[in-house]
Amino acid sequence: MASIRDVAQKAGVAVSTVSRVLNNNGYVAADTRQKVLHTMEELDYMPNEVARNLFYNRTNFIGVMVPDIAHPFYATVIKYIEKELYHHGYKVVLCNTVEKSDREKEFVDMLRRHIVDGIIMGAHSLEIEKYRNLNLPVVALDRIIEGLPNICVDHCKGGRLAAEALLHSGCRNVVQVMGYRKVQSYSEQRHIIFSEVMKSHGVQVNSVELAWNLFDFQEYINVARKTLDDMPDVDGIFATDMVAMAFIKLLLERGRSIPEEVRIVGYDGTSYAESCSPSLTTIVQPMAELGKTAADAVLKLIGGQTLETDQILLDVELRQGSTTFS
Amino acid sequence: MASIRDVAQKAGVAVSTVSRVLNNNGYVAADTRQKVLHTMEELDYMPNEVARNLFYNRTNFIGVMVPDIAHPFYATVIKYIEKELYHHGYKVVLCNTVEKSDREKEFVDMLRRHIVDGIIMGAHSLEIEKYRNLNLPVVALDRIIEGLPNICVDHCKGGRLAAEALLHSGCRNVVQVMGYRKVQSYSEQRHIIFSEVMKSHGVQVNSVELAWNLFDFQEYINVARKTLDDMPDVDGIFATDMVAMAFIKLLLERGRSIPEEVRIVGYDGTSYAESCSPSLTTIVQPMAELGKTAADAVLKLIGGQTLETDQILLDVELRQGSTTFS
DNA sequence: CTGAAAGCGCTAACAG
DNA sequence: CTGTTAGCGCTTTCAG
User: Fold this and answer.
1) Other C-beta atoms within 10 Å of B193: how many?
2) Do A277 and B248 touch (CB under 8 A)?
3) Residue B266: beta bridge partners?
4) Comparison of pLDDT for B145 and A16, the residue scoring more
5) What is the pLDDT of residue B102?
6) Which nucleotide lies closest to B55 by the C1' atom and the CA atom?
7) Angstrom distance, B52 CA to D2 C1'
8) pTM of the model
9) A252 and chain B: CB distance < 8 Å anywhere?
10) Rounded Cα gap, residues B305 and B154, in angstroms
11) For residues A82 and A98, what is the distance between their CA atoms, to the nearest angstrom?
């Protein structure tokens, strides 16, 4: 593999001259430039990015940590992170943290090891404590980590919209399925609001907790089955899209009609919600915007700028499906 | 940020000594080691990975190119690629090539620019021609690119299994939905076999072609609608999981019963297939194995080894759902 | 306009 | 066992 020195030698110029035509800066005579360009072509030269990165003290990589890449929510957000970053010359380094909380600490060390220039943290960060308030280019994605700027979705509104949808559809006895409690997560706020709104209207609210925020449909089926067995009179359900689909499946199997007997509101707005039958009424998170905004935020931090606010709150909306009355 | 020189200076030793304790090689007196270790602690030292990478001429990154990260098939495969790579000290650099065929060339250049050590190519590679037979650490994932080793799924068997399932369920007039033709893809082989098997049993096969291999559910719905309008007598459908779900939705809306009137076999075995209602009979691709195998293959190439075969073929199987008779 | 030289942070001979 | 030195491939002063 030809190096800059090989090019210089063959072209009969100094390496610095080659460097100058490479980066298009400094003065270089037209014919010298041509000669160098030609030699590069001949030698099929490609600059070694690692070497320039060492000099510039950057890598053009952004680490993106998520609990599960295969979950449609994260997969979609990452798609848009990648897209935005790409337009700015950065690349995404993936880190799936599922079942490996210590991987998070390790991943954050990537910043100090100069493996990545910044981090978008979409995972539960137990070990991130020591990096708080350090003004490192790290942003939290859809979760609140003290001392880190975050890009979140208005989950309070999400919870309220879900409650209103079920209320409007005439529910009197609902159940909501919540994430794993131990993982203190801002997004779970929606369940507090949901509960408040429902109760203020005299509706009975039962809460079921998942054992773990894992993406495992069979597990969801189990939870749904147990819930329906324990509370046969439930007439409304509020849960993540995928959990909601488990309920749909079970309810249909048991011959219950949707939405006549039971109404369901999902959360996330993944493609699952629109592709299933009946299509799920769901609270949609703006995944594209979330990704783009998070990407822009780290980029800004890397550029030495500061974010105007510690929290950027994105809007949610309800997408009407066939599991509630419109 | 403290460098190795700072540590050496403060500890009163040479940089090479620090380097030795860092890498645990060469002889270092126990107390010298302690002193150095202590100083590292004090200075909160972290080695600069870019510098060592420059020396070692590697990066520990593997580029993974896919047409669409958000597609559940790719998202899942990537999850397992990441997992396997992680265990070997490598990280995944993502590249979504959707609607940007020139990004592929650029991405392949990453190899020569020393941005990544290897590439797993899960995208349609129009521009990869010049890299053929170069013995670079590049493997094709679920597609055949001449001159590149590939890890594929036995799509012929997949097509046959699908045909047999529909045959067994009594179909006499089926339609199969194929990917975009222009993108010459090995995985489309299944449709040839499918067609052959069906026809050899005297079954009428119609083929519908998608305009683009894009992941867009609304588009799938349109295709399904047009297909059902054009061929109202269809009693069997063979399509990707997501396309199959569009058919399910439309058929149910039109009051057709599944599988009594129309039977459906999906392809991919994504989580969509099991979470929808009725659950989809589908040909499942071994996504976990696919990811692990591809990762191991690039790693092997990077290690200078050669693969025993140019093609590694993984098995598929049928997962029985409720859209066919069992 | 161009070349020589120093240096980014780290590793690996090679002498002591 | 430890320090000195050269060098990975590139960029950037600094002199001409």
Assistant:
1) 18
2) yes
3) B282
4) A16
5) 64
6) D8
7) 22
8) 0.93
9) yes
10) 25
11) 20
